[in-house]
Amino acid sequence: MNHRPGFTLVEVLIIMGILAILFTISSLNLSNTVPQNSLNNAVELLVADLKQQQLSALTGNTEGQENSSHYGIFFTADKYTLFQGSSYDVNETSNFDVNLDDISTSTTSSGSVIIFQKNSGEILNFQPLNNIITLTHNDIGQSKTITINKYGIIESIL
Question: What's the pLDDT tens digit per position in 20-36?
Answer without folding.
Answer: 999 888 777 776 778 88
